[in-house]
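Comment thread on ticket #2218

A.B. wrote:
> Attaching the input chain for the structure job we discussed in standup.
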Amino acid sequence: MLDADRRDRVIAQGDLSEPTRAPTRRSKQRARARKRASARMIGWMSALTTATLIGCVAVAAGFVWFNGAATGAGPLSESTTFKVTPRQGARAIARRLEQAGVIRSEQLFMARYMQHRASSWMNLRRAPILKAGTYEFSPGASVDSIMAELERGRGALKFITFPEGKTSHAIVARLNRDERLTGEVDVVPPEGILLPSTYDITPGMARAEVLQRMQEQQQAALEKLWAERAPNLPISTPEEAIILASIVQREMGPNDDPKRIASVFYNRLRRGMRLQSDPTILYGIFLGPVNWSKPILRSEIRRPTAHNTYQINGLPPTPICNPGIQAIEAVLRPAETEDLFFVADGKGGHFFSKTLAEHRARTREWRKIERAFRKREREEAARKARDARDARDAQTTATAAIAAPTVQNQNAAALRTTRTPSVTPPQTAPAALAQTVSTTPSPTTEATAGTIPLPVRKPRR
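C.D. wrote:
> Ran it. Output below, let me know if you need it in another format.
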């Protein structure tokens, strides 16, 4: 009872200083909430720290793996060549490298390439470019070494070019002169079996290997073009196509249509006319080491040889050179014309004619052009000789002008010497002066010496 009364009095008097159970419960709840929030924060911070550490470890491990994969040995087991064409993008190059088995992963190559670009940008350097060229990669080449080669653009392969229309003898001579190749070629291949073109080579490659490649390329091209030939051609074998292509090759000029030249020869063959090709005359005389620029004499036209198509019917027994792809295509897919004759037009091409009368008129025009050309050649040679002679005369005059003051100074010194008794004794002065005058060709010096009296003194006793 007393406790109840006391509580009632305290409440009546407004004394609320004594704590109650309700406030005590709310404080504990708030404290527990704060503890839970702190625990959650600590948990999140711990998780974030752990994730950051794991991420750093993963990044470090990935970088180590990435660097090792880029610098480690690649999948190549033997040397291989790889060609990068102009304006080919980095991703296309990476894809082709993976397909060729040079690298393991296109993505790895591109990641390394982007790293190089980023590094260049950060260091204010020009971004690397993968350059076109033909490269040779050694076994086990790494991504970094491959990329370095592509960025430098220093392909290990070089190139050698054989112009169309060269004989096998000339091609072998060209090969033997190239110091980048090894092994002499002693046997000249048969005429017409080599394909003139530009071939990539590596230093130290055997010359015989280059010849083998030229022969294989010619066989492959001929098989393809023969299968696509026009119908009803007056030739029956690929060998005959090469023979006629070699004649077309030597006849065509830089501004000619080889298909039209081929049509002239086909029209003549169908009519039973002789081909009458000038290059066959020269080849019949010289064979392999032929001089194509030699003027043809009338006696050589009448000289019978196995290749002289002025004297034989049909095709010669062998090609007269190694024709290029363009000439072979022209023979197997010629133009359709009625032309039977052609003659040079003086502009790198030919005049074509259907009749002999028209051809003779064109020939007279060519003779006029040829005479004018020869006249210009002679005038040009005379002008060059005249200029050279004038240059020599001018040089001789300039040399004499420079030397004249020196000679005059020498003569004047000699004359001064004759006036000095202490230097030249009286009895030797006339001899010294005579020697000076006789060895000096200058007329001015001689006149001066004649006007000066010689010192004459009696010798002392």
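A.B. wrote:
> Thanks. Noting for the ticket: The first strand starts at residue 80 and ends at 84.
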